[in-house]
Every structure is written in C-alpha cells, then in structure tokens.
C-alpha cells in the first residue's frame, strides 16, 4: 500500500457507507410500496403473501446496524490517519492533507479555505506527500 492509498482509504470507506445509505433508502421505499392486484383466478402456493414492510424490515434493520458499525470504524480510521498526518512538520502541509483526506474536500474547496490558488494547493500537496512518504517509509509496505 502506498502513502496515497493509505490516505485515500478514508474516502473509499466513506463512499461505501454512502452506497449503503442509498441502498437503505431504496429498501425503505420498497417497504412502503403497494403491490398491484391481479383479479385472475389462480392459485400459487409459492407466492409470497407477506406485506412489503414485513419483507424489508429485517433487511432495513440489518443494514442500519451495519452502517452504524461502519460509521464507528470510519471515525477510528480518521483518527488514526489524522495522527499520522500530525507527524508532518509544516502546518500548511498538514492542513492540506487534513482537508483533502479527512474532511474529503475538493481541491477547489481546499484552496478557498486556505485562500490559495488551486495550483498552489496542489504544489503544497505534492510536498506534503513527499514528506509524508519519507516519514512513513517502510510502514505502508507492511499494510
């Protein structure tokens, strides 16, 4: 694992949580849906006669629990990555890495927050990544 991959793991994990939240919302919508009626006379012994809210309630509860656990894991992950970022000497480098990888800001948002141009922020980021890799040399090979 490279230093950049190490820092980007927060964003990837956050994206997984967002995906699960979207899935949860779709289950909630499905649980509120009304199925259509069919007035034809036929008997189907394998047809599910449960109400929609019954079919999806267990899935909803399981997914809510999973998201809660993931949010705790995300918090711990951010804390650990933040401790590694704090090892950098330059305050601007720490800020750029924190805004980008912990607060998940875009480059434009980071530049606006620091009152720098986007190009200057990218130069700070390059220096920060170089120094971060130097500080953590050999650590990411183990992960």
Please describe the topology of this protein.
Layout: H1 3-32, H2 52-85, H3 91-102, H4 107-114, H5 118-135, H6 139-142
Descriptive notes:
With 143 residues, the chain is mostly helical. It has one domain (3-34, 52-138). 74% of the residues lie in helices and 0% in strands. The protein is elongated. The model has no long low-confidence stretch (mean pLDDT 85).
Enumerate how many helices there are, as a single number: 6
Order of helices and strands: HHHHHH
- Total domain count: 1
The helix-and-strand class reads: mainly alpha
Question: What's the mean pLDDT score?
Answer: 85
- First-last Cα distance: 6 Å
Task: Report the biggest beta sheet as strand number plus sense, adding barrel if it closes.
Answer: none
Poorly predicted spans: none
- Range of helix content: over 70%
The geometry reads as elongated
How many distinct beta strands?
0
Relative strand content: under 5%
Report a brief summary of the structure.
By secondary structure, the chain is mostly helical. The protein is 74% helix and 0% strand. Helix 4 crosses helix 5 (118-135).
Descriptive labels:
143 residues, mainly alpha, single chain, elongated, 6 helices
């Amino acid at each position: 694992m490279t230093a950049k991959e190490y820092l980007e793991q927060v964003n990837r994990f956050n994206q997984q949580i967002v995906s699960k939240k979207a899935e949860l919302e779709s289950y909630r919508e499905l649980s509120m849906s009304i199925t259509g009626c069919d007035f034809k006379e036929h008997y189907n012994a394998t047809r599910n006669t449960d109400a929609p809210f019954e079919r999806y309630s267990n899935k909803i509860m399981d997914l809510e629990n999973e998201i809660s656990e993931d949010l705790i894991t995300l918090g711990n992950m951010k804390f650990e990555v933040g401790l590694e970022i704090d090892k950098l000497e330059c305050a601007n480098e720490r800020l750029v890495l924190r805004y980008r990888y912990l607060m998940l800001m875009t480059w434009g948002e980071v530049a606006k927050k620091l009152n720098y141009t986007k190009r200057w922020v990218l130069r700070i980021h390059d220096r920060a990544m170089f120094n971060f890799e130097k500080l953590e040399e050999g650590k990411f090979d183990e992960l």
